[in-house]
């Protein structure tokens, strides 16, 4: 009975966001939805404020532990934690779980921004801190907000959406020129060729190719992030001061 209630609640959030995207509604409904979205942003800002410099890892939720890409994502998470980054993912299974696991088991800091869905995507067990977000666009914003770099592992449509969202914001200078690493040359070769074709046909500039770094090597990824994230932005791992009047506390690792 309890499980059924949760599913009903999750279905409500999905239905609500779908209804919002259908077009204009009454002014009261639009205002009420805006206030609820504002609440989710404030809740997330309080939860994630002290997580430190992050790298967000994107990738498919469908790969199991015996998959080569899952194992590579573990190595990626481990390497990022050794650099001093907190590892942020969408908080679910597959590549997300693997990257979180790599950081978590290596005494790194592991964070998840989990989306609430009708079939209940549960936070994976390798998280020190996570937040459940009911709206896709709020979650996408959070996955970008706290990160100084993005690592794109093999994935599906959602992963490509996240990749091009990050690239668009960098290209239009809405966010800094954070490094974007595409991990998996064989898996992403057609995608990379298509981006090259866009540059050749001038639908993007040739300089936009510099926004991407394609590799199969964790070591190369580490060197690239050290050069274009750590050194470029002067990143230093240090605790941030909390403010008692906001009721804030630092994250505790388990």
Q: How many alpha or pi helices?
A: 8
- Whole-number mean pLDDT: 89
Gyration radius (Cα, Å) is 19 Å
User: How many angstroms does the end-to-end distance come to?
Assistant: 32 Å
Q: Estimate the global geometry from the Cα principal axes.
A: globular
What does this structure look like?
With about 250 residues, this protein is an alpha/beta fold. About 45% of the residues lie in helices and about 15% in strands. It has helices at about 1-20, 25-50, 70-80, 95-105, 135-145, 155-170, 190-200, 220-235, and strands spanning about 55-60, 85-90, 110-115, 130-135, 145-150, 180-185, 210-215. A seven-stranded parallel sheet has the order 4-3-2-1-5-6-7, sandwiched between helices. The longest helix has 22 residues, at about 25-50.
Features:
alpha/beta; disordered N terminus; single chain; seven-stranded parallel sheet; 8 helices; 254 residues
In short:
With 254 residues, this protein is of the alpha/beta class. Helix content is 47%, strand content 14%.
How are the SSEs placed, and which strands pair?
Elements: H1 2-21, H2 27-48, E1 54-58, H3 68-82, E2 86-89, H4 95-104, E3 109-115, E4 129-133, H5 136-145, E5 147-152, H6 157-171, E6 180-183, H7 189-200, E7 212-215, H8 218-233
Parallel strand pairs: 1-2, 1-5, 2-3, 3-4, 5-6, 6-7
């Amino acid at each position: 009975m309890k499980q059924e209630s949760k599913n009903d609640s999750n279905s409500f959030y999905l239905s609500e966001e779908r209804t919002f995207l259908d077009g204009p509604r009454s002014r009261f409904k639009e205002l009420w939805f805006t206030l609820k979205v504002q609440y989710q942003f404030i809740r997330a800002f309080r939860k994630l404020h002290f997580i430190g410099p992050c790298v967000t890892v994107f990738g498919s939720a469908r790969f199991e532990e015996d998959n080569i890409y899952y194992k590579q994502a573990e190595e990626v998470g481990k390497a990022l934690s050794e650099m001093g980054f907190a590892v942020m993912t969408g908080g679910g299974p597959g590549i997300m779980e693997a990257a979180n696991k790599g950081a978590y088991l290596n005494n790194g800091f592991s964070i998840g921004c989990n989306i609430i869905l009708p079939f209940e995507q549960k936070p994976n067990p390798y998280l020190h801190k996570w937040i459940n977000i009911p709206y896709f666009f709020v979650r996408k914003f959070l996955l970008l907000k706290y990160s100084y770099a993005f690592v794109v592992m093999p994935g599906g449509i959602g992963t490509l959406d996240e990749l091009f969202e990050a690239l668009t914001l960098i290209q239009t200078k809405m966010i800094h020129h954070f490094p974007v690493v595409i991990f998996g040359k064989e898996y992403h070769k057609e995608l990379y060729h298509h981006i090259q074709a866009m540059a050749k046909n001038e639908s993007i500039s040739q300089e936009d190719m510099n926004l991407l770094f394609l590799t199969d090597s964790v070591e190369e990824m580490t060197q690239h992030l050290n050069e274009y994230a750590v050194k470029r932005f002067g990143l230093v791992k240090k605790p941030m001061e909390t403010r008692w009047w906001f009721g804030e506390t630092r994250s505790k690792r388990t």
